[in-house]
């Protein structure tokens, strides 16, 4: 293992699979926008030293969850663009390693280069980045230390020891406000998880339940009013009955979805915090809609409101709560039972 990497972050290893690495990124709270400010160093060929700057870095996940999407924008204090770029992280099946590529413009001139994961652990990551810019190619090490889910320290140095070392502290950003304490929970409507919930409703409305297989964890616990359903297999059997036996032409009208990213310090109930109830990230998506459907047996058109809550762990729903008036569904079930007598 690289000596620079060993010195900066202990217990580094390489992932055995893409899912192992992606889970680490999600659990560690890496996804989001991170901001830092400082004075540029004599490090990058295309960026002069001694300039005050503000830098925003964004980490996101592609819709198919096969790539991590990266971008940055570095501007001077008076708003002039110093550097802008984007890239991706993915899994190379041939080498069975995490690979990456990044490119952009420094001072209006292009730069590009491959990034290779040296190692990762819960404490952070180390990357080897070989950049080509303005006719020069040189290798760097980028160390990202996870201080907390809201603070990172990035250290960048050239592999040959030349130039200056850049060390910056990044704080997670929500909208235009930097998170500066542990009492901030966040509500989002355009994030990746909210989009997945919308896709789930869209797929079930066309009676395509294949998406539900990847949406729910195997051990999901579901509560529908007072009914309890344990496990993905049992719940998908229920979905099949609702969509293919009891109702047709189901639509979710006026659908609204948002996702809550709870701080460990957020109050839950009985004076306990979210952190008291469980370790790790607590993420809940909430959805409201008006269901419109036609009973397959009664041929009756029904409409009723529904509210659903989805709790996420490791990219899948592990708990679901659903609330609606069951009268129309009970009527359809009764008609089904009568037809079978």
Keywords:
disordered N terminus; single chain; 2 domains; elongated; alpha+beta; 7 helices; about 50% strand; seven-stranded mixed sheet; Lipocalin; Nuclear Transport Factor 2, Chain: A; ten-stranded antiparallel barrel; about 350 residues
Describe this protein's structure.
The structure is a single chain. This protein has 341 residues and is an alpha+beta fold. It folds into 2 domains: 3-178, Calycin beta-barrel core domain (Lipocalin), CATH 2.40.128.20; 186-339, Nuclear Transport Factor 2, Chain: A (Roll). It contains 7 helices and 18 strands. Strand 10 and strand 11 (177-178) form a beta hairpin. The longest helix is centred in the C-terminal third of the chain and has 15 residues, at 232-246. It is elongated.
Number of DSSP helices?
7
Q: What string, H for helix and E for strand, traces the elements in order?
A: HHEEEEEEEEEEEEHHEEHEHEEEH
Q: Roughly how much helix do the residues carry, as a percent range?
A: 10-25%
- How much of the polypeptide forms β-strand, as a percent range? over 45%
Give the termini distance in whole angstroms.
Answer: 71 Å
CATH superfamily of the largest domain: Calycin beta-barrel core domain
Mean pLDDT: 89
Described by its quaternary structure, the protein is: single chain
Indicate the CATH architecture of the largest domain: Beta Barrel
List how many beta strands DSSP finds: 18
Indicate the overall shape. elongated
Give the neighbour order of strands across the main sheet: 1-2-3-4-5-6-7-8-9-10
CATH class of the largest domain: Mainly Beta
- Biggest beta sheet summary: 10 strands, antiparallel, barrel
Which structural category fits the helices and strands?
A: alpha+beta
The parts where pLDDT drops under 50 for at least 5 residues are 1-6
In CATH terms, what is the fold-level topology of the largest domain?
Lipocalin
How many domains? The number is 2
As a whole number of angstroms, the C-alpha radius of gyration is: 25 Å
